[in-house]
Amino acid sequence: MGFAREMGAILGTIPHLVRNGAGAANTMRRSDLVQHKEKEKGAGTRTSQIVFGERQHLLRVLDSLEGTELPIARMQQERRTLEELIQINTAWDEKIGLVLSADAKPEMLEKLVKQAPEEDFYLLRLISEHPRSNAKTLNKLAKHPYGAIRENVARHPNADAATLAWLSRDRSQPLWYLVAFNPNTPTPLQRRLRDRLKRLGESQPSK
Q: N or C: which terminus of the chain carries fewer CB neighbours within 10 A?
């Protein structure tokens, strides 16, 4: 089996790990990428979504290389170069592997959120989906500007009442309907939100 296929097989197991562990699909959303904006001055932060994109690109290049007809010496040299580039971000592998682990400790997830730059949408989205993220971590993520992260918090079973109340007032997107069905939402608020949803349904013209 070629290196590209081996890496593809490894990456292919990640969704299975997440479904049975962290409970979320390890897919790179297009919005994870487009949300990142380079700083006007100086080098941009090398966030998880950037490293992930580079890794995927290099794997595709390596895969295409194995299907071309090149002199053996050149083929081996180019393959070694690509393999070295693919494996250069071992710290990234360790961090993402930790977040995807079902055994990740809540304290470690909390620490990663504190350390991660705000624009690291991919890493923070994975943490917001992790079943072991605690209420304190989710409270911090509830104020993140990326909508997908706030959505995950609104439906998370560990989000506390104060966080859910905050999200129900979010004017940038209708998170209140997710809060309405979170079991941790205080009963009075849950009742108001469900009544609101019912009125909204009744106001829609029937087909």
A: C
The dihedral through the CA atoms of 59, 127, 124, 112 has a sign that is negative
pLDDT tens for residues 81-92? 766 655 555 566
d(CA 168, CA 176): 4
Rounded Cα–Cα distance for residues 157 and 182 (Å): 7
What are the tens digits of pLDDT across the range 16-68?
Answer: 333 333 344 445 454 444 444 444 444 455 556 565 666 666 667 767 777 77
Q: Using alpha carbons, list the distances in angstroms from residue 190 to 55, 180, 186.
A: 43, 5, 6
For 186: left if phi > 0, alpha if psi spans -120 to 50, otherwise beta; the answer is beta
- The encoded tokens of residue 24 equal 């979320």
Whole-model pTM?
Answer: 0.62
In the block, tokens 């997830």 appear at 109
The Cα–Cα gap between 169 and 73 comes to 63
Q: Which long-range contacts (CB under 8 A, 24 or more apart) does 191-197 make?
A: 193/168
Closest CA to 96 of 5, 22, 6: 22
Residue with tokens 């593809």: 8
Cα(120)–Cα(6) distance, rounded to whole angstroms?
Answer: 27
What number of other Cβ atoms are within 10 A of residue 202's Cβ? Answer: 8
